[in-house]
Amino acid sequence: MAHAPQYETIRYAVRDRVVTITFDRVEQRNTVTYRVLDEMLDAFDRAAGDDDVRAIIVTGDGDFFSAGTDLSAGSGGYDVESAGFKPLRGGTRDVGGELALKIFDSPKPVIAAVNGTAVGIGVTMILPMDLRIASETARFGLPFTRRGIVPESCATWFLPRIVGIATAVDWAVTGRIFPAAEAYTAGLVHELVPAGEVLARARAVAEEIASTTSAVSVALTRQMLWRQLGSPHPISANRLESKALLALGQMADAHEGIASFKEKRPAAFPLTVGDSPDFYPWWSEEPFDD
Fold first, then answer.
1. What angle do CA 95, 118, 112 make, to 5 degrees?
2. pLDDT at residue 80 in the model
């Protein structure tokens, strides 16, 4: 197992081409501070740039995935003063949103292994992740309106797309805590497993991706699915898929995929994300307007 240089609030470990990022603030119920967010941003950059990493798992240590933002004064968390809650670093930018966008742009699939209760940013950060596996005993909540604020981490974009507008409004407006079974029924989580088995199940899924799929195909497929959500007509998908099929059909992974199928053997895809076709990424960056 390979380890990156030590972080203070998270653990980062690579094994079998899968990186596991673990919130490591058990005594604080894995609550989130600016340091946590900065370390998470760095960890996702590290994973994206490592060709040996094929999938990313995010989980928490102990009984909590994350109890949300650390609001305790003097904790090294967000600025909490008599004037009120100040969640915007520099007064302009939601850093949780920076993390959500980083995850959204990830060239590697991201799996949330929700080992326990997830509240606030503990929920919103998992929304741009691709698969969300949770403990049967986990609880979820978006209590922003009960704190006099609004959802963050781009949740107002992601949440309705995942669970539908009616459920999104219910959860976000009431701010109530709801059980894992409700999260599963609504589609927030894809699978429920017994407590203690969440990480193992996430690893099994991640290792299957790492061992059986093309890194280039996964990177393009992930982004094509997400970014077509806003398209007004399927013709845009037809054009993009045609371009991708034409480019990938001439590359080594497609040849290996077909050869391995014909020869009835596991594929050994040679390419990495860095070998993606020239049109990737095809979307334009929109700078944040301060």
1. 80
2. 47
